[in-house]
């Protein structure tokens, strides 16, 4: 298995990483080399596997 997918926390993007898309409130969507999506907030420095609350579907919020 890929080491990136086994990490408990998503990576912090490198300065050369290009986001897949820019979201609101400083959030950006990235993809690991293994193809796993993660989200990073450039204002707070936080990275997470799940989408920020404002873009989650109702099923993801519950």
TrEMBL record:
Record field: transmembrane: none
InterPro entries per UniProt: WW_dom, WW_dom_sf
Start and end residues of each stretch annotated as Disordered: 1-22
Pfam families named in the record: WW (PF00397)
Domain WW: 21-54
Record protein name field: WW domain-containing protein
């Amino acid at each position: 298995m890929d080491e990136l997918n086994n990490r408990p926390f998503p990576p912090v993007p490198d300065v050369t990483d290009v986001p897949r898309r820019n979201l609101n409130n400083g959030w950006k969507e990235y993809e690991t080399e293994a193809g796993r999506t993660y989200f990073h907030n450039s204002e707070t420095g936080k990275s997470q596997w799940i989408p920020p609350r404002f873009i989650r579907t109702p099923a993801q919020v519950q």
